[in-house]
Structure formats: C-alpha cells, structure tokens
Structure to design on (1063 residues):
C-alpha cells in the first residue's frame, strides 16, 4: 500500500519542510500530490530528528500547508536510460519533453553518479582537431578533457561551441561512435533553438541528447539539469562505448540557482553570497569528464559560462577554472575589432595539451612554436602599451616588428571564418610564418634545432 | 532500529557529510564510528550533552534516521608498516587499487578493506635478541620495502621493556608476531611489523634540531634564489593555472628526499592518473630506480567526499612522520591546502558554528599551524635523524592573496613561492615571482651553500636579485618613455635581467636536460651570467653601445646554455668563459683602435 503523509509543516522559498515522516532517507526523492494542481517531485536535502527539508523541483507555487500529500519514493532521482535517448529532448529532471513518450530503459542510474576512482582513470592523450588555429595550436582540446568557454554576454560563445561540434566530429575515426549531450541551464529559448538548428544543419541531430531547462523553467531544476545530462553521457560513454561531447550552458545560471537554495536554507555564504561548497559542488559535475581504463568511450565537457561584467575573478569562473583542465577565454576587444573566434590566448590554457602534443602526437615543433607564440604575443601587449604612450613611430625597430607581428597574429592566425576548418599542419605552418617575421634573437622559447629546421631566415616570411 | 543497544547510538539527522547521533553519551571526541546499515566510516567531531555530531567520510546519501551508529572505541588511525610505498590511498588510507578490485571504476560506499596487504611475506632481518632492553621507537627489524628503501620496523612509541620470544630472520607477514616485549609492569605485548597510530596525534620524537641542509629540487629559481630546507615549510600560493601542481609534481619527481608523500587534496582525478602513468617510468636521480619506489600517494579528489578531504592531510603527515622516525628525509606535498580549509569551512558551516573571516571557522589558523608544526628536522626516539619538509599549495580565491588561507599559511611557513598570473600568461615558467617570493632559510643554509658551491654564493645571489629589482624599477620608466632614452648602463641592466629571466629563471619542465638541473650547473649558470655582466659593464663604461654588445651573439648563447650544456658534462662553461673573454678583448681592442684613430 502506498503510504502518504497529509499536510506540510512549513514552506520556505523553494523548500518544503515535513514533520514526523518515518523512514525517510537522505537525498531520496519525494512525490507531492497537490490538490487540483497535479504532481511534483522533490529531494530531501536535510534531515533532523523531527523535520525533513525538501527541495521542490518545479517550485513551491500553489502549494499550501494543507493541499498537499507527500509520498516517499524510497530512492534517489534516477534517470531511465537506453540507446533510445539519442535524438530525444528531456526536461531538467529527465522527463521527456518532446511528446514522444517515455524511454524503455535498459537501466536506471542515480543522477549524482559515483566518484570515479582516480586509479581507474586513463590519462587523456588524444587531441581533438577543431580546425580552429587558436584552439588546436595554442589550447589543444583533448578527448576526455573538461575545457570551459569563459565568455561575456553578447560574445560569440555559442557560435564557437557550434563550430567546435561541427568540425571536431569530422576527425573522428568512427563517426557512429560519436554523440553530443547538450544541457541548457536557464538560458533563453533562442539559445536552445540556435543549437538545435545547427545540430540539424550539420546532420547530427539523431546523435544529440538534449536536456532543456530554459529561463522560464523552474529554478530548482537547474540543479538537476547538468546532472541528468552527465548521467546520460556516462551511459553513452561507458556502457555504449561512445565518445561523448557534453555542452553545458550557462553554468552561471546553475550557480545562481544553487545560491538561491542555499540562501533559503540560511546557510553561511562565502564570496558574493555563493555557498562555501560551490567548489565541491561544481567539481562533482566537472570531474565526471574523462576516460576510464578498460572502457572504450570518453566524456569531453565544454561548459559555457557568461561572466557577469566580464569579470574572471567572479566566484563561478574562478572556481570553475580551479577544477577544469584549462579554459578558453573570449575577449570583448577582439570581438569589437572583428576577430572571430575572439580567443584571448594569453588567458586561455589547455592543461592536458602538455602531454598530448609534439612528436608522436601532433608534430615535434608544436610545444616550441606554441610557447614562442605565447611569449611573443605577451611581448606584443607590452609594446602596445608603450606605443600608446610614446606613439608607434617612436618605437625601436624590434618593437615595430612586434607590433606588426601582433596584428598579423590576430588577423591571420586567430581570425577564421565560421566554416573555416584548418588542419593541424596548416595551423603550425602558419605559426612559423608569423614567427619568421621576428628577429631570430627574439626567439627565446625555441631550441636551436627547431629554429634551424623551421625558421625562415630569408626574412621573406610574413604576409 | 535493530542494533540499538547501550553501546550504539542512532542517527537523528543528516546534513551533507554531517550526521547527528543520539542515544550514546559514551562516544568520545575524535573517535571513529561506523554509521548506518552500510557501516560508513565517520569520526566524532562534537560531543554535547544529548547529541553527538559525526563527520562521515563517505557519501551520506540514503542514510535514515534511526539507523545504528556503532562505536569503534579508537580514534581514526592509519596503519603503519611495509607495503605503504608505491600505493595510492584515499583520504582515510583505503587502498584505491583494492577498492577498484572490489567495486570497479567508481567508488561505492561501505566497503571494508584492509589497508595493507596482510598476506605478503617480507624477507625480514631481525635486529634484536631475547633479553635486550626495548625502548620506544627502537629499530627491531629491517625489510626491503622496495628496491630503493630499507624499511625499519620500529617499536611503537608507547612500548618499552625487555624483548622476549624474538624470532629469527625469515619471511614474515606484517601480522605475524616477531617478538614480544615484557613491560615494567610485567605485561607481555606482542610485536608485529605493523601498528596503528591516530592521525591527529603527532608522533613523538626526541628533540628538534636546527635545519642546515637544503631540500635540493633541481629547480633554479628555488635552489639558487629561494631555497627550501630539509625539515622546512614552504607555501606555493597561486591563482588557477599558474603552476602549483606542476611545481609540486616537479618537486615530487626531482627533490632529493628519501620519501615523497604526495597528497592530492580536493583536486583533479586526472592529475593522479598523470602521476600514476609518469612516475613509474621516471628514475630517481639519487638511486636510479623508479620513482614510485619512494612515493606514496594520498588521493582524495574534488569529487570524493569532503570530510575525507579533511582527513587526507592528517593521513599524509602521519605516514610522513612514520618514515621520518626511521631516519629518512621525507618531503610532503599537499595540493591544495585551500581545499582542506574549505572542507573545514563546510563542516563548520553544517555545525552552525560562528564563522570568522569569509565563512572560515575561527580555528582555521590553529589547524594550519598545527599541520605545519609537524614539519621539522629532528632527532628521533631511536637516535636517528630525519626530517619532514612540507610544501603546501594554496589556491587563493579570485587570485586574491589577502584571503584568509593564504594569509594564515604565510604566517606558519618560511618559504613563500608566490606564483604570478602575469608571468603565467606570458608563459614564463615556473611562474614564481621574484619580487613577491622569499625564503627565510637563507642564513641557516648559507654554510651549506658555501661549502657545496663556493664562498661567493651569497654575494652572487644578492647580485642576481639586485639586477632583477633594478629591472622592475627601470621598467616603470620604460613603460612611460620607452627604452631608447635610457643611458647605456641602464640598458645593460635590462639586457642582463633578460638573460636572467629567460636563460636562468625560466626552466622548461618538458625538456630532458632542463627539467632537473644539478646544483653545480645551476651555480655555474648564475656565475657565468654575472661574469658576462662584469665584462659588459666595463665595455659599456668605455662608451661602447649596448646594442653592439648584444649583436655579438654572446648574450643569446647564455640564454641557450640550459639546452646546450648537458647536465653531466659542464665543460661548456669553460668554453663560454673563453667566449666572453674573447668578446671582451675583441671589443675593447676594436674600440680602443677606433678611438685612437678618431683622436689622431
Ligand atoms: N614549470 C612549468 N613548465 C611548463 N609549463 C608549466 C609549468 N608550470 C605550469 N605550466 C603550465 O601551466 C599549466 C597549469 O599548471 P598547473 O596545473 O600546475 O596549475 P595550478 O596552479 O595547479 O592550477 P589549479 O589551481 O587550477 O590546479 C600546466 O598545464 C602547464 O601547461
Ligand atoms: Mg593544481
């Protein structure tokens, strides 16, 4: 018989408090039946001797202390899984949203997952060619990596993500083993539509699983949206052997939802009102990327976050970058100058590239040329600052060369068309052409052997 | 509610990793308990009149009010004995490879696992005989734990008396009795090759000794400019991606410690995977054997339960103390202590304690100081000397070094290797900022450096730092008016600083020849740079423009010497010195001639 509790003890923001329920277990799902409204689900997030605090997914609107009955489901939030999820659209708690009916599950999995044992991980080493020089050359994306895009409102992060998805899959040796999981967290519907449209245009829609929690969807479900998405990704990667690319946007909305719930629980806040456990909470999702020894598939994550005020010290980008394996930072100034993709390469970083480029991976000169491009472009910033004070004409000859190098770097190397797909060789050769416009004595990051082999001494390099 | 009896309490509330317990007033502070039907491991962290609070080291999802909480009677402890080296443990010393055998690639809860292999037979040499006096910490047997390390089996620090029933050399497991001790009170204690020790209780030693030896790291900016002592403490603060982990890995690989304890505390799983893939292939420069032979990893990654993150630091330091007691030099790396502090904050928040700065508990400074206090160079109970050096990474939120963890760590550590975002953005690695960093060990280590390099070490170090400082000052001017208007003397300073930065401070962790550099070569590099400076200053003083000096290519040769002069053959320095002499002579003759011609 189904045991239901009548009445609630208290309602507080997105939370409902129950009194004297027996046998409740921590983090289990509860089901509410609201008279004249319907059913909602929630999750127990705190228990004391008498009380249970429940976070209600669709929000607490219309709930009163007396119109609601509660049922304990006896399990945590679980996602039904089978290969049928490919091509389907779900809401933030994993229920179908496309009107195509329920999934017949092979299995069900707790959306929180279990921590991957670090000794079971395989260190990711295969690069994904995105066809974008800024990424392939200088912040190489590795299969199994978590590499977020830090952007700002109005910057082309969605275009970039879409271009990565479109071009990355081409280099995959076996396209049937490739899948995309897309999680929209609190974004406007046009963003979701943009992604849907471009998935359709590149003919991958049947390879995509979507979890949509749009701006007007319940805030509490933003907590479960990325977790459902990652559970689906884990299923595809580690049960079905697929290489899964997970795109999650916008992680700021996620963190804001977390903050809202934390504050209704009157928890002690840390910076900017976010809870002290924001780091651990984000990590519990980002760490679900990776490769497992002995299993075929992989999970690569590209979370997107639009930094409030373009502020990289904001707690969400800050803590994210402390967890992810690097970051791609987009720059407003480059955008204004018409450079797409506007990747601010000095602030961007791929941590996994160090062991996955060079001889035997990309090309022997890759680490050296990348380092030299970074160092020389850093120098460009100094020279530009100086030029803005004393005027470009007053610069020394060498500094003038750096000014020219900087411009060429942005216009020829960074800048690409939205459908321009450069292979790795082209990117690296382009790098050498740029470096060859600088005097040899300025090349402090290259070994003598590499200079001898690739540097164009004729001075005819350049553009 | 079946198991509810006098000795057991029951769960009366759950909030994240924190569980309230009622019904057992006998639970002791810091006692280990088994929580719930799945017997999750927990530790008592607060005892009130009618309620006890436990932090649980595994996920609490699924716990129910009323489930039993069983007392273990002892505090959270580590198991010490041969078999630790080369292992990867979680925060409470459960072997992760064994966990993998039991539960596959994801960590399930409630697993019961032996910490050390109890079936393996060790070839044991016994060092005592019947009737010998037994003293605390005494070395009673020896076992080659790995080809690189002779494990000294010691009496636990609280046992003494007279040896009885001593067995002969032979093959023993760690649980077999190899001797007994009859105490003064005529109690017989059986001795095996393993014993337990509570993680939060520092292991006792004889007395502290002053530090005098550097922990050689093979990293120039550290060994030459901001050296660390064996037995010392160092902090590596730095924003994300500035190179804390890389630096820690470099030290774990190349520092001249006998034992390395590496604690991955709340950081990335892939970084542990990286260590596990790369270390076995690397050779310890001292022994020539695989690095894993001297390494133990404690891995509590950011997605593992937060309370165990708190424990991982203590587990690591207790293991370090155990090897120190054998007379070894241990280096402990903790990456990152900020995650540990955050774990304290999270637990404290759940306990609704009154927060101090930024939500951290008021006891943050005392916990940090207690941890760093466990470093030191000591004489052990058994008379041997050993040391623990602690190198803690700090991850300041928003790269703000004024935040509480960075500030408090600074108070309790004596080396400060400040990683700089701007240097990292410009890919100057290691991004250790030379103006914000310091070592307070300079004076204590000076005699060692003078003996092992030469008497001018101190002067040369100061001179290098002076040039760098002068550069920062000049750059302020250059930013405003450009370099051209500077007098040649100052231009030279800028050129020399450039050589120091690019040729000396920058060190390529991925270059075979540059990843680790012996002190002798480091010192020669520093000396030759100053030699060039001395000669160049003279030339500039006679009126030769700096650009002419640079055009000779000598400056560039010094920048490349890290690649061109192999670590095992330093003859190249003599060649470079001759090169500088020629450069000096040629230019002075040329210019003197020119001047004579002009004046005629
Ligand atoms: N000594 C070095 N040599 C070469 N590259 C380095 C060095 N130090 C850091 N890097 C580069 O910087 C990247 C980030 O370094 P690392 O992972 O050590 O940063 P971190 O300070 O530990 O960051 P987080 O706090 O996010 O963990 C590395 O992946 C590598 O590309
Ligand atoms: Mg790190």
């Amino acid at each position: 018989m189904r045991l239901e509790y009548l009445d609630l003890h208290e309602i507080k923001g997105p939370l409902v408090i129950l009194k004297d329920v027996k046998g409740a277990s921590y983090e289990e799902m509860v089901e509410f039946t609201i008279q004249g409204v319907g059913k909602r689900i929630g999750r127990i997030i705190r228990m004391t001797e008498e009380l249970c605090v429940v976070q209600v997914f669709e929000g607490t609107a219309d709930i009163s202390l007396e119109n609601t009955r509660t049922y304990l489901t006896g399990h945590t939030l679980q996602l039904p899984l089978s290969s049928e999820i490919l091509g389907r659209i779900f809401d933030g708690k994993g229920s179908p949203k496309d009107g195509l009916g329920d999934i017949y599950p092979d299995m069900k999995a707790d959306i929180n997952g279990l921590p991957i044992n670090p000794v079971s991980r395989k260190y990711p080493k295969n690069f994904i060619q995105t066809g974008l020089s800024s990424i392939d050359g200088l912040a190489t994306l590795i299969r199994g990596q978590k590499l977020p895009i830090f952007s700002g409102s109005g910057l082309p992060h969605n275009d970039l993500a879409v271009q990565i998805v479109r071009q990355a899959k081409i280099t995959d040796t076996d396209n049937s083993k490739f899948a995309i999981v897309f999680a929209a967290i609190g974004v406007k519907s046009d963003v979701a539509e943009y992604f849907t449209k471009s998935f359709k245009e590149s003919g991958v829609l049947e390879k995509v699983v979507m979890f949509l929690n749009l701006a007007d969807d319940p805030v509490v479900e933003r907590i479960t949206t990325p977790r459902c998405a990652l559970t689906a990704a884990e299923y595809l990667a580690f049960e079905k052997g697929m290489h899964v690319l997970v795109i999650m946007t916008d992680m700021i909305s996620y963190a804001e939802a977390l903050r809202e719930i934390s504050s209704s629980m009157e928890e002690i806040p840390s910076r900017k009102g976010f809870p002290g456990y924001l780091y651990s909470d984000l990590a519990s999702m980002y760490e679900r990327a990776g490769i497992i020894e002995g299993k075929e598939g992989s999970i690569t994550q590209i979370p997107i976050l639009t930094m409030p005020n373009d502020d990289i010290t904001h707690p969400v980008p800050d803590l994210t970058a402390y967890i992810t394996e690097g970051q791609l930072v987009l720059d407003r100034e480059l955008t204004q100058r018409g450079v797409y993709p506007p990747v601010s390469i000095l602030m961007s970083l791929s941590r996994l590239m160090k062991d996955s480029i060079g001889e035997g991976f990309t090309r022997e000169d890759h680490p050296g040329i990348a380092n030299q491009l970074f160092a020389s472009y850093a120098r460009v910033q100094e020279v530009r600052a100086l030029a803005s004070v004393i005027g470009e004409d007053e610069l020394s000859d060498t500094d003038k060369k750096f000014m020219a190098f900087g411009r060429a770097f942005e216009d020829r190397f960074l800048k690409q068309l939205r459908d321009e797909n450069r292979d790795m060789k082209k990117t690296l050769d382009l790098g050498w052409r740029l470096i060859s416009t600088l005097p040899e004595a300025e090349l402090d990051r290259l070994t003598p052997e590499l200079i001898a082999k690739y540097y164009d001494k004729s001075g005819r390099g350049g553009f | 509610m079946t198991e509810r009896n006098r000795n057991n309490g029951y769960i009366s509330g759950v909030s994240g990793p924190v569980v309230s317990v009622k019904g057992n007033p006998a639970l002791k502070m810091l006692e280990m308990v088994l929580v719930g039907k799945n017997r999750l491991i927990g530790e008592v962290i607060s005892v009130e009149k009618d309620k006890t609070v436990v932090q649980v080291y595994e996920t609490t999802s699924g716990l129910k009010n009323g489930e039993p909480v069983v007392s273990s009677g002892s505090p959270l402890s580590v198991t010490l004995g041969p078999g630790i080296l080369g292992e990867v443990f979680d925060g409470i010393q459960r072997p992760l490879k064994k966990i993998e055998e039991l539960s596959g690639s994801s960590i399930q809860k409630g697993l019961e696992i032996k910490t050390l292999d109890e079936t393996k037979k060790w070839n044991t040499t016994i060092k005592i005989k019947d009737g010998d006096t037994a003293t605390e910490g005494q070395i009673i047997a020896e076992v080659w734990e790995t080809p690189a390390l002779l494990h000294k089996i010691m009496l636990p620090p609280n046992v003494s008396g007279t040896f009885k029933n001593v067995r002969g050399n032979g093959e023993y497991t760690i649980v077999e009795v190899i001797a007994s001790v009859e105490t003064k009170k005529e109690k017989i204690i059986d001795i095996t090759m393993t014993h337990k020790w509570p993680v939060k209780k520092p292991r006792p030693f004889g007395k502290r000794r002053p530090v005098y030896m550097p922990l050689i790291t093979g990293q120039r900016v550290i060994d030459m400019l901001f050296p660390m002592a064996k037995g010392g403490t160092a902090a590596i603060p730095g924003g994300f991606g500035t190179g804390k982990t890389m630096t820690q890995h470099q030290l774990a690989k190349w520092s001249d410690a006998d034992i390395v304890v590496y604690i991955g505390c709340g950081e990335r799983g892939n970084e542990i995977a990286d260590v596990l893939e790369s270390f076995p292939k690397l050779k310890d420069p001292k022994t020539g054997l695989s690095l894993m032979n001297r390494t133990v990893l404690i891995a509590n990654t950011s997605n593992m339960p937060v309370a165990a993150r708190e424990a991982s630091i203590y587990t690591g330091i207790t293991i370090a103390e155990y090897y120190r007691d054998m007379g070894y030099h241990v280096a402990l790396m903790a990456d990152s202590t900020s995650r540990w502090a955050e774990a304290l904050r999270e637990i404290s928040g759940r306990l609704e304690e009154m927060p101090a700065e930024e939500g951290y508990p008021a006891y943050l400074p005392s916990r940090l100081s207690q941890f760093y206090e466990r470093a030191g160079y000591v004489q052990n109970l058994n008379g041997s000397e050993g040391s623990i050096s602690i190198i803690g990474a700090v991850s300041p939120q928003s790269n703000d070094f004024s935040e509480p963890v960075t500030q408090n760590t600074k108070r309790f550590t004596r080396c400060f290797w400040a990683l700089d975002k701007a240097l990292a953005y410009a890919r100057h690695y290691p991004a250790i900022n030379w103006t914000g960093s310091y070592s307070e060990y300079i004076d204590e280590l000076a005699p060692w450096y003078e003996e092992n390099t030469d008497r001018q070490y101190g002067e040369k170090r100061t001179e290098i730092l002076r040039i760098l400082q002068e550069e920062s000052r000049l750059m302020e001017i250059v930013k405003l008016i450009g370099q051209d208007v500077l007098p040649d003397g100052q231009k030279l300073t800028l050129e020399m600083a450039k050589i120091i930065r690019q040729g000396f401070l920058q060190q390529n962790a991925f270059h075979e020849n540059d990843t680790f550099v012996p002190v002798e070569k480091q010192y020669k590099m520093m000396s030759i740079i100053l030699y060039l400076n001395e000669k160049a200053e003279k030339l500039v003083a006679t009126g030769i423009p700096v650009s002419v000096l640079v055009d000779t290519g000598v400056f560039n040769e010094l920048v490349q010497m890290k690649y061109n002069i192999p670590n095992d053959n330093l003859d190249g320095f003599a060649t470079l010195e001759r090169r500088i002499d020629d450069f000096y002579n040629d230019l002075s003759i040329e210019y003197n001639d020119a001047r004579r011609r002009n004046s005629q």
